[in-house]
Amino acid sequence: MKYSRSLFIALLISLPLYLFSTFNHDLWRPAEAREAGIARDMIESGNWASTHLNGRLFLEKPPLYTWTLALPLKLFGYRDWAVRISVLLFTAGTLALTFAFARRRLGNVGAQAATASLASMWLFIEVNHGAMVDNGLMFFTTLSMLAFDRLDDESAPSLPWALLFFASLGLAFLCKGGIGPVLVGAACCCLILFGRRRGLPARMHIPAGLAVFGLVACAWLVQLWLRGGEEYFRVFFVENHIKRFLGTVGPRGDGIFDYIPYYLPYIFQAPAPWTLLIPFGAKLAWDMRRAGGEAARHSWDIVFWWCLGMLLMLSVAGSKDNQYLLPLLPPLAVLAGLFVEQTWLGLPAPRFARPALWLFGAASCAAVSALPLMPGFMRGAWRLLDVALSAAAALAGTCALAALARGSARGFWTRMAWLAVLAGVLMGLYAEPELNREKSGRPLIAELDRLLPRDAVFCGYNLNENTEGMLQFYGWRPHIMVKARRAAIELGTDRRPIYMALMSKNETDETAEALVSSGNWRMVERFEAGGRFYRILANRAADAKRPNS
Fold this sequence. Notes:
The chain is an alpha/beta fold. The chain contains 25 helices and 7 strands.
């Protein structure tokens, strides 16, 4: 089969998991609304060099990912679906790069299976259904590792791949800062040192490569310096790089789990349901590495050190989050693809692989069959169509298991591919709408549109970044941000009509009660949206209508 046709089949199996469910929901927490708000701020301010949220400097990350969000918004307007155009492109690009990396080690079936397994991994699905900077970072780190893999091939010309390697490192830096080059560097250094690739540095054309990296990175850094000078550099490098690496800001582990044990549960959870099969693929790869000579050792060492090098660097860093494991998923997908190819070809599988395969098939069948029943579980009532689609998915999964029982691995994997396509359709019809009810903050915007005049002075009290971004994106940018309770109480005496939005994770809120008790504010409305509790207050000068109920 030709390379292009094989890649087309791989994407045909994989992309339905995203095509039917990427564009049919509102902005979601925890990060999508914030990224969209920053992109709108960039467009309206005309400042494409530094990122701002609600008018204040927000230099957690470089602006490349924001650029990819802002360009479709500038073309199509401030629409939810426009935010995710670049998300889908990054997703498809990462899948294509994974196919290319796998295809150098596996046949067409194995490369297709690696691509489909990556697309169906739990963490990949979670991150790539929303605008999160990690999906852009994953694309550029995968591109870097693919170029490094070609540098390891002495039959390939070294200079073009070296320049691509360093250019993609520069783009990874522009996407999420130093973490991209550091993760790739950790994997590459481990391979050179422990994989005995002493000749690789000479093929990397390091002086020319560093010049390319510097050109890509410095093109933005110079603009950043011109905008804010030393202060902007301090915020970007000290506050959001050094302190994050040390763990003094940002998400952290907990106690002894600041090191490798923190990620152990997540390294099993992130590639689910393929976690059941990846160890057997790793065993097969290790056996091939030992028995296949120098070429096989070179081929599989990069897969192992890609995972181990990045995991080691993430474990050393003080700032931790499970989504940081996303760049490790492509090599894990290659190991899953190897196992699929071995069983497809009828070659001997490792011990205990068959029970794991049965469990994988049953778990996947149950998960897909449950998708149409999600609304019923949430609301306590099922429609006939929901039950019928669930039964159809269960029948498809049963046919796959029946093929496995007959000893037909090809029949099993063919039916599982169809089940994956069906899962994509059902996710768009059922899972995304239900998740949207839980994760969308759009009801807050609807209440503001109903209660407040557009020319009202609107302020927010201690809102988180996601809520600020959502308000910015949907056109309700707060004129005033209040951080202290005393300042909020005093603001209530202002002669201007002012409305205030408060957010809480709990149904009761002491701050709102204190503001109302002060006599300077009265409650206009309270409601729940996206798993958060909101309260709209009006000061004494505001001419706001009281709630109807």
